[in-house]
DNA sequence: TATGAATGAGAGTTCATTCAT
DNA sequence: GATGAATGAACTCTCATTCAT
């Protein structure tokens, strides 16, 4: 009996936490900026304003967590690709096309992570995401350099540049509201693939 | 007499406008965020708060103009390089190294345009800057593709990716406060030059 | 014309400042504690909440000023007595009886300065008042010791004790709401006069 | 069996009540103000917040009880002195020096009862303490007046004044943080003894 | 009886914008 | 055209108290 009660309580707590996160995410997407009044977050999540502060020490922490969660999923996907046994060239190819494709499909959420204006306190979370992404890419580049598939280069620098290239391209594509509804552009995906492969000089494997 | 007075009035007007812009730019640089209280802007510019609204319809417009002006200067420099008679490869090389070098040297201002968190209303101005920069780069890429120096590619897409790559690399470099005071990193400049030249496949000219 | 306008503006400003102070004083007296919501202060003073902050940097500053103004007046009266040419014994006698008498007559205001619970930020202002009062009394005591009217003693310590004795006696007298409306007690005044004169051993002058 | 259980329950209850009071006292001393968040009190006492409300109807009641208990102890000591068989003069002398000395030694707790800013609801408890102290002193003064050791005077009024004198002197002494750590000032004790003895005109016994 | 998560009113403060002078 | 005092809605965050479990 007792543990059931505990379980139920735990579920409700988790539920509330999730509802707050969800409400924030939706508000942020609607509002078009990585910000939302706590009072409105609470209203949407059907909790009192004080309750929000039981789960998140401050507004900044709440928004940071929203960014973190959204980022982590994308990151996991790309990291999975990076760890495969394939050749570096193919891994980079797949990683880039997957990332761009997913961003274009889940446009509104991607916007949060990539494009939208951002509050000072949260910018760290976004930077962290970009760096984590760059780290994954850098692994692939380093492998490629080692196997001779890619040209000699600083993998960390190249990875950062690739991330930037992807983000900026998506930035353009996502900036128009139309992008949210329409089909992703095949051209953009292909252009990015080719750009990134050339940038690391993947031609060496021919 | 009359026109003189008119002229003087016009000068004073222009003077006030410039003082407001200058005050804003300084405040923004000091504050480290693309924002500044209008009351403080007015105080620094030695005008009344209401006067700020005679020259700029809203705070957002004022900040947008600050970004626009700061961007335009950088843009002019790069555009000058793009319009020279040199080969596309050399122009791209010079443009990239100049841009990165200038950003690293004028770190605090570059930060405004590239790195810092940004208010919703102003993000458009920054995006405009990036696009204008991409347009200039696209011209070089298009020339290179035409002359056969570069691989076949969509110049607009490549240019956007290059701009993103530059921004992200600078982002990392400028994120640390040290960057503001220290000498620019030669390594970063060289890495970026090599990355961008590879990305357009400038090897064809060898 | 211009100076008239300036004058009128200045008058209105002063007026508003006074209205804010007055509203605060009344709220504090009604509320029975040295505190008042800024929103309510503003409402009573017929100004916007933000306007209060134009005149006082913070709520604490506002309340401190209320205490300071109320204190200063009482202080001036006692200081005037202390500076007269009379013998120390007579000056102390007059100072004590005047202070107690005034406090009992202006009971509600005296309460602010002496009795009522107090916020942390404002307690400094009250302490300052008590110390200033003690300084004035100490002057009299020192004179009396010098002329041999009073016993040898530390004037500062004696003055602090006298101030405490007065405050505590008033505390009792003012603590009951009845005191606010009724006539001041002649007995209390006389008791305090006698107590204080004995305490400095004014008997020496006989 | 049954009564044992009842006893144990009663002990636990009492234990909880004491733990809550103790936790509050410690928090108050640490915090330096006669206030403490109920949530924190509960945490320190290892009970739930709701439990605090089983033992004390409100926060004010809890804090009042803390003040009452702390006061009572001091009061008992002074009352013990007042009830001795010694002459009034000696009892007053001992009472005053004991009170001041104890306050200076147990500075942090004394501060609570004498000096610190106070919430509206609790001020009654402090006033009660002062009055009880005055009552004890008044007994001594009345005795002294009766035996002719002291001058004719209203014992209640004199006692209140003495309490005020003591409090104010301590107020000054305790207001500085240094007082908490340093040795008590012998001078202050002596000055207060002399002041109070003069004030009741204890010279008559010579 | 004990729990402690939830409540929600209320706090002080800021600042873009307006408009009477 | 210039002034700058005034506006007041909006913000985040706190915490005494309640009550379902």
Give the arrangement of secondary structure elements.
The structure is a homotetramer of 206-residue chains.
Chain A (H helix, E strand, L loop, with lengths): L1 H30 L6 H8 L3 H7 L3 H24 L5 H18 L1 H8 L8 H25 L7 H21 L2 H4 L4 H14 L7
Helix pairs in contact in A: 1-2, 1-4, 2-3, 4-5, 4-7, 5-6, 5-7, 5-8, 5-10, 6-8, 7-8, 8-10
Chain A binds a DNA duplex (21 and 21 nucleotides) through helix 1, helix 2 and helix 3.
Task: Give an account of the 3D structure.
The structure is a homotetramer of 206-residue chains. By secondary structure, the first copy, chain A, is mostly helical. Chain A contains 10 helices and no strands. The first copy, chain A, has helices spanning 2-31, 38-45, 49-55, 59-82, 88-105, 107-114, 123-147, 155-175, 178-181, 186-199. In chain A, helix 2 (38-45) crosses helix 3 (49-55) and helix 5 (88-105) packs antiparallel against helix 7. Chain A is elongated. The model of chain A has no long low-confidence stretch (mean pLDDT 85). Chains in contact: A-B, C-D. The A-B interface holds A 32-33, 116-120, 122-123, 127, 130-131, 151, 153-154, 157-158, 160-169, 171-172, 175, 187-188, 191-192, 194-196, 198-201, 203 and B 33, 116-120, 122-123, 127, 130-131, 151, 153-154, 157-158, 160-169, 171-172, 175, 187-188, 191-192, 194-196, 198-201, 203. The structure holds a DNA duplex (21 and 21 nucleotides).
């Amino acid at each position: 009996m007792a543990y059931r009660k505990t379980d139920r309580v735990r579920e409700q707590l988790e539920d509330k936490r999730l509802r707050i996160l969800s409400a924030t995410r939706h508000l942020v997407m609607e509002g078009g900026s990585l910000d939302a009044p706590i009072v409105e977050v609470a209203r949407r999540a059907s909790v009192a304003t004080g309750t929000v502060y039981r789960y998140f020490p401050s507004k900044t922490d709440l928004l940071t967590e929203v960014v973190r969660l959204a980022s982590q999923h994308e990151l996991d996907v790309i990291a999975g690709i990076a760890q495969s046994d394939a050749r570096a060239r193919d891994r980079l190819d797949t990683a880039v096309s997957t990332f761009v494709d997913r961003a274009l499909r889940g446009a509104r959420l991607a916007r949060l992570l990539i494009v939208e204006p951002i509050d000072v306190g949260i910018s760290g979370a976004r930077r962290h995401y970009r760096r984590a992404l760059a780290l994954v890419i850098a692994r692939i580049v380093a492998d490629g350099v080692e196997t001779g598939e890619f040209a000699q280069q600083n993998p960390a620098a190249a990875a950062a540049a690739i991330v930037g290239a992807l983000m900026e391209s998506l930035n353009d594509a996502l900036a128009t509201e139309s992008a949210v509804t329409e089909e992703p552009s095949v051209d953009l995906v292909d252009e990015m693939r080719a750009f990134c492969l050339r940038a690391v000089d993947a031609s060496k494997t021919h």
